[in-house]
Fold each of these.
Amino acid sequence: MKCIVLAAGYATRLYPLTEKFPKPLLPVGGRPILNWLLDDIDTFPDIDEHIIISNHKFITHFENWEKNQKLKNTITILDDGSEDNEHRLGAVRDILYAVESLELEDDLLVVAGDNVLDFSLAGFVKYMQEKESPCVMCHEENNLEKQRKTAIIVRGENGVITSYEEKPQNPKGNLAVPPFYCYRAQDVKRIREALNDGCGADAPGSFAAWLSRHTKEYAWIMPGKRYDIGDRRSYDEVCEIFSPA
């Protein structure tokens, strides 16, 4: 199983902090945001490689970061070739780029590189292995304004997703889906099919939404909190929460 980290965004809402520096490498609590994820994932016995997808603008920062890492698993840094926000590939095309350029035929754990979690993702990977199906994470979200800015699902019997909507104006449920996904190798082979079928390329959840309409997909309820770093205010709040004692 491979871990793919989506880190090719330009984080324009965090300018000037991220105008010349990638958001996943900003420090939180004494270590880069990215390490909050990989320090956890690196302990999973079934993960054997971390694949970081960056853009051409920030690739050197990730290559320099990699030189100082002492993770157990191999780290592969990919440059998706884009140089600005207007010409970005989009998260789904970045996943496809990694799969095709590295000729991957593995199950995947796909994570957004700009989130901090206060729980381990080990349970999420185990859940996918138990269900033997693609899986997403979810948490309760009852604020309508926030529901309209994210993916919302309805979780049926045994965790099966019965409805999956990206940024709905009139949500059918109240379970939000953050950008963390587990895909089987056979699911990954359908990414190009999904894009050709009209699947959105920008939002990372677009492929998961498409897949839920073509196969049985499950939702794992998060056991803790996820901190999404989107703007300067949210970044400052996370830094305060995780500041060293």
Note: The two ends are 36 Å apart (CA to CA).
Amino acid sequence: MKTLTIAIPTYNMERWLPAAVESCLWQTHKDIEILIINDGSTDAGGAIADRYAELDGRVRHIRQPNGGHGSARRRGQDEATGDFITWLDADDFLAPTFAEKMLATAERDGVDMVCGNAVVFSDKTFNTRRYFPHPAASGLTFAASPDYWKSKVVWRWIFSLPFVRTGKDGAPFLYPDFRLGQDVCYMFETLLRVKAFSQCPDDVYFFRQEHKKSSGSLETEINHQLAHFAAVKGILLPQGRIKPFVKYVNENYWRDIKAIAPRLSDEERWTDRVIALGTALFRDTDPAWFEASFLAPELKANPELVPLASAFRAGDTAAARNLIGGLARNAEPDVDKTSAFHTLRRRIKAFFHPVSRMTRGMLHDLERRAASRSLPKPSSSR
């Protein structure tokens, strides 16, 4: 069977990194390489990575100055030596059969990419949901299966290393320099160019949810998160992939602009930047793309997005500014999901859910394995 490189970008993830690495070491397929890409961590993550490199020769600790997740993922791609590569976030974990089942699918079908199913779980309650699951399938293409726009996250896939290094007209696929959204750009580029991909039906990746909510500066939220939508446009529309572009923007841009708008009240220059990015995003788009008839059946139209998109499309700065202000004034307060009642209710629900019980059991097993290693203590506990 082929070999697999598992690249783990990490920045100040000392609390979760041990379980992630343990989930690599417990793979049933042993012919793997584990790259811990230390993106300038200032916590004990570097010492933890060193310890794992001492314990197992398949682990390499690679240090670099902080450059963001995209930079760390690029470094992993450059350093990899396996036949295939996958990326594991430092706070997530893999099922023991991840490498075995994903590589077996790739070899059986002779494809350069395989998607596996993923489980999203709560760090506090262990409530779970399956993340856009797909049944087993072979020889898929993005043109014939455009619903894979929902699977636009890099962490549930494996990629042939020769493909990601030469598949872009002889050049490598690269993560752009966005701190947010860069994996979406990478995924859409690879999906457009791969000859065929396959789907493994098993739940092989486990994504930890709560603390990943962005708490970045306005600069990061705007110049990285909002800016990546225009990059997605530049990838998809020239290839005629209108529906994946529109559906991604309809669902994700609207969510993000509503979250950012309340923070813009006293930030004139950032409001101007949001308007400039929105104008670039919606320029030359067809108003009909955002109507219910075009979006059905996967998504519902966002009637509130239509006037804002129209203002951006027309270059009407005053109207766009007024609509963004309205989003800020009408913002709904966040539901307090940290309350004791909310946490208890969801823990009870998770206790009786088989996927939640399985996820909790695997994570506790990984944590026990890590606790037996005499790892350096997290800096927060010293």
Note: The chain has two domains: 4-213+359-374, 218-329.
Amino acid sequence: MAGVQCSFERVEKKFVLTHAQAEALMRDLTAGYMAVDQYGQHTIRNLYYDTDDYALIRRSIQRPRYKVKFRLRAYGTPMEDSLIFAELKKKYSGVVYKRRIAVSPDDMRRFLRGETLDGENPQIQRELHRYLSEHPIRPKVFLAYERVALYGLDDPALRVTLDTHLRYRTTRLDCFTDDAGTLICPDDPVILEVKLANAAPLWLARLLSRHKIYMSSFSKYGTCYLNHLARRMPDIRPMAHKRNNEGEIEHGKVFLATYKNGVLESISVDFVESEDFDEFDGSALGKSLFIREEDAKNAILKGRRTL
């Protein structure tokens, strides 16, 4: 879609604020540093895709160096002539890479059926389609919030957003019905995000310090999962076992298995007792990582080692 940025590479910093902190910060930001964008306060609706057992968000909250989310997004109250965004958001070593298309609701339905759309970036369409075809994901969580976005007067690439009234639901999973949902956090905090293409300006660092606002790790979808969805999930993950440095067998749960061209590529295992989280190359299965405890014991007796 002409005029819509479809690729991003930037650093995003997050902060959790009280409403009083947010109001005070807004007064300072708009006193010569930044301005509210043309949309003012508006609703953002997201539809997050995941596996049936929430494998993507479960991996994401373990804070690996590389993580991926796929979502649909609509701004404001969507109409039949509104733009719907399909976004593949990747984060690697703290840098966010976003690839997206922006199309009408009808075209989005066609795209999700696997069709290639005329007039849209074909490379990005291929990337999104490839991801959807290689991962067994479907709509799982609707998540909405109210947003105010600001841009820098001296540097329009500097963006600041403040999100409030974060809410979710697991029914009516589309972007076109109402935006009602249950609050993700009972105290309803304000989530501040600073989006940077370059280093943060000194004046912004001083304002944040003045209001005692400190960087935090906060994921809207991740917090929703931890606060509301995880307790609903039966723990059906297969066990996995390895030998630790002391020669003892550690017991873990397979967190996520990824495949490439139908071949097991990697395995992520959560070793609960040691609070350790390891990623193994697919070839480690049967050599240093074992699904059956008996196989792990036999491997130790034969002197095999872990990765």
Note: Residues 7-231 form a domain with the mRNA Triphosphatase Cet1; Chain A fold (CATH 3.20.100.30).
